[in-house]
Amino acid sequence: MAERLTKSAARNIFYGGSFFFLGVFVILTIHSHLYIKNTSTDESTLTEAVARGKHVWERHACINCHTLLGEGAYFAPELGNVWVRYGGREDPAGARAALKAWMRAQPLGIEGRRQMPQFNLTEQELDDLIDFLEWTSRIDTLGWPPNVAG
Ligand code: HEC
């Protein structure tokens, strides 16, 4: 064995290491993609209404105040699990009515409390938005957030 690192050995380590980790990176990227498509995304219930609801969510920039699965602003509550928080798993109709009532009642105008604006959404927009939030609540987040308050 050579006592010192030769030029060719250094080159081989450099190229070998670069290609090895590039390969690992490509494999992990493919794995993430397939995991998102096949495991963590519930494609079978991804309806037109859910897609429209996402557009309502984007048009009104709810994310400027709220987080959705941790992404967004920390001014207002996490909404990735708001469907579960409102009891949507046990009583879907009740949760839907409660969420609509909440959206319609804004702003509450309670002194010293953060306010949410009134968006004047139509019945259809509210239904689509809630379909979107319901669908989002079913994304497999491996138990995140750790508590129900998000
Ligand atoms: C300007 C900031 C702001 C924007 C934009 C905003 N919200 Fe809110 N939202 C709030 C605040 C603040 C609260 C908590 C208010 C409270 O508890 O009185 C809240 C609460 C909520 C809640 C109740 C959460 C819970 O756990 O009780 C829902 C549902 C909600 N927002 C949905 C939306 C949707 C949907 C949009 C977009 C159409 C939106 N918000 C846009 C500030 C905002």
Automatic annotation (TrEMBL):
<dbReference type="Pfam" id="PF00034">
    <property type="entry name" value="Cytochrom_C"/>
</dbReference>
<dbReference type="InterPro" id="IPR036909">
    <property type="entry name" value="Cyt_c-like_dom_sf"/>
</dbReference>
<feature type="domain" description="Cytochrome c">
    <location>
        <begin position="48"/>
        <end position="137"/>
    </location>
</feature>
<keyword id="KW-0479">Metal-binding</keyword>
<feature type="transmembrane region" description="Helical">
    <location>
        <begin position="12"/>
        <end position="36"/>
    </location>
</feature>
<keyword id="KW-1133">Transmembrane helix</keyword>
<dbReference type="InterPro" id="IPR009056">
    <property type="entry name" value="Cyt_c-like_dom"/>
</dbReference>
<keyword id="KW-0408">Iron</keyword>
<keyword id="KW-0472">Membrane</keyword>
<keyword id="KW-0812">Transmembrane</keyword>
<dbReference type="GO" id="GO:0020037">
    <property type="term" value="F:heme binding"/>
</dbReference>
<dbReference type="GO" id="GO:0009055">
    <property type="term" value="F:electron transfer activity"/>
</dbReference>
<dbReference type="GO" id="GO:0046872">
    <property type="term" value="F:metal ion binding"/>
</dbReference>
<protein>
    <submittedName>
        <fullName>Nitric-oxide reductase</fullName>
    </submittedName>
</protein>
<keyword id="KW-0349">Heme</keyword>
